[in-house]
Write a structure and sequence with these properties.
94 residues, mainly alpha, 0% strand, elongated
Length: 94
């Protein structure tokens, strides 16, 4: 439980930390971190459905699913190309 809570805090702030403190070439490491968190959160949702009585089809299950799906917006390799403007093509790492 403590590990999932720690991962939740990391998920909340990792993209902001990436943008503020790291260069573009570090994005792959944050993508790996985000994919790991998505996997662990999916595993937690599955385990909670099996173990916690009343969790399956509850409001909290759907809340967990939506919050886990929102982590896909942190994956740069998916959304960098989708939101790239034509004037950004020559952009280099500073």
């Amino acid at each position: 439980m403590v590990a999932i809570n720690l991962l939740t805090v990391i998920a909340l702030f990792s993209d902001d930390i990436r943008v503020i403190f790291f260069r573009i070439r570090s994005d792959i490491y944050f993508d790996i971190l985000a994919m790991t968190m998505i996997s662990l959160f999916c595993l937690e949702i599955y385990a909670s459905c099996k173990v916690v009585e009343g969790y399956y089809r509850s409001f909290f299950m759907y809340l967990d699913i939506v919050s886990t799906l929102s982590l896909f917006f942190d994956l740069q390799f998916i959304f960098a190309k989708a939101f790239q403007h034509s004037d950004d093509e020559g952009h280099e790492d500073s």
